[in-house]
Amino acid sequence: MNSDNLFAVIIGMVFLAVFAVLVILKNRYSESRYDERQLSARNNAYKYSFFVLLFYIILCAVLDVCEIKWAQTSIQMLIGLLLSVVVLTVICIIKDAYFGVSGKLNVVYVLILLAVAVLNGCEFIRGIQNGEILIYNGELSMGIFPALLSVVFLAISVAIMVKYTVNKKHTEDE
Amino acid sequence: MKNLRLKSARAALDMSQQNLADRVGVSRQTINAIEKGDYNPTIRLCVSICRVLGKTLDELFWE
Known about the structure:
The complex is a heterodimer of chains A (174) and B (63).
Chain A: H1 3-29, H2 36-65, H3 73-94, H4 107-129, E1 135-136, E2 139-140, H5 145-173
Antiparallel strand pairs in A: 1-2
Helix pairs in contact in A: 2-3, 3-5, 4-5
Chain B: H1 4-12, H2 17-24, H3 28-36, H4 43-53, H5 57-61
Helix pairs in contact in B: 2-3
């Protein structure tokens, strides 16, 4: 690992640690909580997410045994991670079990998601312009990862906004 | 099966789903799901709804 990568990993770890502390503090002091239906929906979402990840891991293992190389190991792991997170998040959003009892749209949260999507999209484009290799020896390489992240964050942002619009319409129709 | 008795009891008090949800301490979508018959509430939530609407369990939830 060269010094640039090491620096990026350290920055990433610091960001993750700060984010984890913020989440813990938010859960401890905020009013955000879930009612019984939302908890049930979240339980189901965790279940689906787990089985999607399980199926994906089995699929990767089978492809590996058959010596079908389609992506580097690190990318395979990251895709599995993103896949399970997307399933969990989108099911929670669809079942109105994402923003707690208040159901209020957190605009700052959505803007952060969109910003992450755009930044990763820009990073992907910059990588292509700089000649980043996306497929090496028939395997997806790490160069594709910003594009995957961008798609995931964009999908979650869009799901939140669509659900919010639908809910708002239902409230007005009531 | 839709719970029309809950809906009419709520409407009789001129309460919106959001008002009832706030009083009971659940989300508006949960009240909506109960009225549409998409969700079977626990006995604890049923009792809370009955208390807010001034009805008995039989009147709102017994078939």
